[in-house]
Amino acid sequence: MAELEASVIDHLIDVERHAATLLTEAQEEADKRLSQARLQADESFRKQFETIVAAEEKNYDEKVSALTAQYKKSVEDYTARISSAEKTVPAFNAFCDKVLQA
Fold it and tell me: 0.90 cut: is pTM over it?
């Protein structure tokens, strides 16, 4: 009877060891899967982020180019208007004399 009890206890201990081994393997597999999922999610995020950043940089460059062209045109138009304006030196001198003598 004592041998039967010892045999049953040994069997239960073996079952416990096997269960502990299965639990450890399951935890390792879960950690591995989580790590892979995290890597995939990070890679997906990085790709989407880079796509958005590239689109925004292109949009920014286009707007800067458009504004630069608009600015240059405005300066050229202003320069052309000033250059073509009638220069009345005597009237300007008279205005300066009037203001400075006041």
Answer: no
